[in-house]
Design a protein that fits this description.
By secondary structure, this protein is α/β, with parallel strands linked by helices. It has a single domain (3-241), classed as 3-Layer(aba) Sandwich (Rossmann fold). The chain is 44% helix and 8% strand. It has a four-stranded parallel sheet, sandwiched between helices. Helix 2 (39-55) links the parallel strand 1 (20-25) and strand 2 (58-59). The longest helix has 24 residues, at 218-241. The two termini are 27 Å apart. The structure holds zinc ion. Residues 31, 39-40, 110, 164 line the site of zinc ion (ZN).
């Protein structure tokens, strides 16, 4: 059930029975020469929409832009500041609360969104808002990490991973025409976090972080997406069991 295709009358009817909405969030940022700039929102959207379909839950339009300041050394990356991102998440959450939603679940495809989203939740509670706010990052769920380890061993890495590139290859194979597939060395430099855009580029000059995205295939993408959906459903089911106080 996609919010963007509904009328307000249909949302009123949905709210008579349910109080949950899934909101896909991602980023618009470089994913090395091997991956798509839209990777993080494309994967989050696919997971959220499939979960919504299987659990019969409302899915909001995707928020594509994220907090990606460390990728700004690469052309085509777009970032919101942490402060702006916090405000955007607050605005989306309070809009749903105002209309009677009580469980607002963000399905996330990008690590950089996690901190500001949690700060937004803290701020909403500080201001006295009711309800359950959660962020589920599909790529950090234990079953997904286990599968990635099985498929790619220690070459999964942390950015432009073969897992996320596989999912986008499965979903948008035509977008990969002309993308690099040449294997390269996988460097594992010592680094601290966060990094600014110059520090990031110095340590990870082609935009990968300890990953081997050339290992990505459509077949793996189908497998990993299914695992991500399954693991996210488990998380969402737990949230549905919680009582809103
Ligand atoms: Zn990514």
């Amino acid at each position: 059930m996609l919010l963007e295709n509904m009328s307000y009358k249909e949302v009123e009817i949905y709210l008579q029975e349910k109080d949950t909405v899934l909101v896909p969030i991602g980023s618009v940022e470089q994913h090395s020469p091997y991956g798509l700039i839209g990777t993080d929102f494309i994967t989050a959207e696919a997971v959220a929409r499939e979960v919504g379909k299987r659990l019969d839950l409302l899915v909001a339009p995707t928020l594509p832009y994220g907090m990606s300041q460390h990728h700004m050394g690469f052309k085509g990356s777009i970032t919101l500041s942490p402060q702006t991102y916090i405000s955007v998440i607050k605005g989306i959450t309070t809009s749903f609360l105002e209309h009677g939603f009580q469980r607002i679940i963000y399905i996330n495809g990008h690590g950089g969104n996690i901190n500001p989203t949690k700060v937004a939740f803290d701020q909403l509670k500080y201001e006295g808002n009711r309800g359950i706010y959660q962020i589920i990052s599909w790529f950090l769920l234990e079953d997904v990490l286990t599968l990635a380890k099985e498929l790619f061993q220690d070459l999964e890495g942390h950015h432009a991973t073969p897992s996320e590139v596989s999912i986008t290859k499965f979903l948008r194979p035509e977008a990969f025409e002309g993308k690099s597939t040449q294997p390269k060395k996988v460097e594992k430099p010592q680094y601290y976090w966060p990094l600014n855009k110059d520090e990031f580029k110095k340590l990870f000059p082609d935009g990968r972080m300890e990953s081997a995205p050339w290992l990505a295939t459509e077949k793996y993408g189908k497998l990993i997406l299914e695992e991500a959906v399954r693991a996210t459903i488990n998380e969402v089911r737990n949230i549905l069991k919680m009582e809103v106080v």
